[in-house]
Amino acid sequence: MTYSAQGVPGGAPGTLVRRVLPVLGVVATLLLLWEGARLLFGFSEQRLPSLGSIVETMFTRTRGGTGPLLIVQMLANGWATFRVALGGFVIGGLLGFGLAVLFMRLPVLERGLMPYVIGSQTVPILAIAPMVVVGLGRMGAPAWLAKMVVAAYLTFFPVTIGMLRGLRSASPQSLDLMRSYAATPFQYFWKLRFPVSLPYLFTALKIAASAAVIGAIVAELPSGAREGIGVMILNAAQYYNSRPQALYLAILVAGLVGIGFYGLVVLAEHLIVKWRT
Amino acid sequence: MSTPPIIEFDRVNKVYQSGGGPVTALLDVSLSIATGEFIALIGPSGCGKSTLMRLIGDLEQPSSGTVRVKGKTPAQARLDRDYGIVFQAPVLYEWRTVRRNVELPLEIMGRPPAERRERAMSLLRMVGLGDFGDAYPYQLSGGMQQRAAIARALSFEPSILLMDEPFGALDEITRERMQTELLSLWSNATPRPTVIFVTHSIPEAVFLADRVVVMSPRPGRVQRIVLIDLPRPRVFETRESPRFFTLVTEVREALRATENERVGA
Ligand SMILES: Nc1ncnc2c1ncn2[C@@H]1O[C@H](COP(=O)(O)OP(=O)(O)O)[C@@H](O)[C@H]1O
Ligand SMILES: [Mg+2]
Q: Is the ipTM of this complex over 0.90?
């Protein structure tokens, strides 16, 4: 190849270092601030546990010393939440995609349904989640599906909006070209509108990734759930006075799951959207 | 001309309905273009050149009068894939490699992958992009992108080539080189496509065309048709010949006459 490979994503070896170093810097600063605040204001372990005690808590055994390490149990809960979030992400993503295509083809439907789509997102998810989980449970749906539905509820909205915008962003001349080739509606879609909308879709999916994790956690809050970050947060909050470290660890795991999910979307974007510099 | 014209305008008017009221883009245009002819359309910007071209391509509909393409309606000609089109911007699909951009029309027309690929590569070699098939459009210069766009328009061997200021965004040096390249592509093609080439460069129109159609400012009308009798093949020296200067002057004066007419009106 004689053309320049400059700007090809993932090409330069220095990128990883340049990306990771700032993140590590921020983490180090936060840790310093944390311990600094403890020293400065003299917080007790209960007000703000020391980093040392948090790490220590990570490696205590659960169930009064007979269970697995706390951190292992927590990661297992994080994994459970991740699976729910992923399922909801896929369901919500497909729903959002379908709605966007429908709205693009039938503007009447967009005018009629869009207010409800927007309205759906203004209702607090904390109110919706128990309704969905309990309601679907009564109808005999498995618990994991009910939880995924809550995650999907938060996912479909950004996908609908982003995808609709993307589907409409083909330039007039690129459409003229398709017309000049006498393309079928199917070809207009798959060879032009869909690829044009991919960068928009990925922007939406990045927002949706965090939303799906939040949805999954909230869906684990109603009583009856046995595993997941939501359950972990409730437990840790209950025993906050005797062992505050667990809550901070739960938050940490929630953050890791969210970042991991986001990272997967970014990775997929890099593999698929290769033409943008 | 004994053969029937490939493109025929008969008293065509085109009025756009825009926010500020109706805009007459074309007024009473009648024009016949023969098979294999190279026509340059010239006129000040906004005089309806693009509109005229888009009527041929069934990208706009006339308000009155008729346009015939190969004896058919433009809509039928479009469905028969009778023309290829090149705009001022390359309009390459940025998510496709250069080769797959050239393949696009063939893909839509359902040609087999091996044939598509071979045809695209041979065209890319012809326009000097043989090494860039796997590059993405953003990796190419403006001139190279436009070469790819021309290759794409020629990929399915249309009998008509519509070009709307295709070299308008290029620097003068690249532009003259591309003019020569276009002429050699055109004269080597069998059969030669009929070319409608929109430009507002007088030397470009004279260098390329068999006939230069001079249009008047809004509302666009065919003001004059200047026959370009420069011998072919046209080469570098053509631009330095006395006849070239005479013809450039002739077109320039025809354009000025349209201006005066408007001022006098
Ligand atoms: N889609 C449109 N709607 C309204 N007015 C238009 C449209 N397209 C072109 N026009 C108007 O028609 C006139 C001719 O336009 P055009 O054919 O693009 O001219 P040219 O290509 O010679 O610059 C211009 O005044 C332009 O503003
Ligand atoms: Mg124009």
A: yes
